[in-house]
Write a structure and sequence with these properties.
Elements lengths: L2 H5 L7 H24 L6 H13 L6 H7 L7 H10 L3 E5 L7 E5 L1 H12 L1 H6 L6 H15 L1
Antiparallel strand pairs: 1-2
Length: about 150
């Protein structure tokens, strides 16, 4: 559906304004669909993002600073998200043997198994983009990368 129909607005100041509004609207739409996918697993998208980062680094432990650098949502409070994941037994927080001031974070077996379950729903994630061909997806990725400059 066209952005004009979605937000009931016929005119925009410029095509660039329309683009910005369309990107914001579409980003929110994707976030909403992602939240629906993760709801049965009782995870937020930020928690899911951290778990995926930790799985990618496994078995190496990581620091909160590394998580912050790699997170999709730069406004998230990584320490607080880690605390919530610790309470769910999905990650462990341990003191670093070489530097006791540093805290290492590692995903647990329970966290890995949860991600394996979520991976089975990967087709649901990709289905929301079925209106684009693979070639169009590559093109859009290139445009978005260029936009961020």
């Amino acid at each position: 559906m066209k952005i004009e129909e979605e937000i009931k607005q016929d005119k925009f100041k410029s095509e660039y304004q329309k683009l910005a509004i369309n990107l914001i609207f579409t980003g929110n739409w994707i976030n909403s669909k992602n939240a629906e996918l993760l709801k049965p697993y009782k995870l937020t998208s930020q928690q899911y993002n951290l778990l995926r980062i930790l799985r990618g680094q496994y078995p190496k432990p990581v620091t909160v600073n590394l998580l912050i650098e790699r997170m999709l949502d730069k406004m998230s409070n990584a320490s607080r998200i880690v605390d919530r994941l610790v309470k769910k037994n999905l990650v462990l927080r341990k003191s670093c043997p070489e530097d006791r001031r540093r805290v290492d974070i590692v995903i647990t077996d329970k966290g890995m198994k949860l991600l394996d379950k979520i991976d089975l729903d990967e087709d649901k994630w990709e289905k929301r983009f079925e209106n684009l061909t693979a070639k169009e997806a590559i093109e859009l990725n290139n445009f978005l990368d260029r936009l961020r400059g």
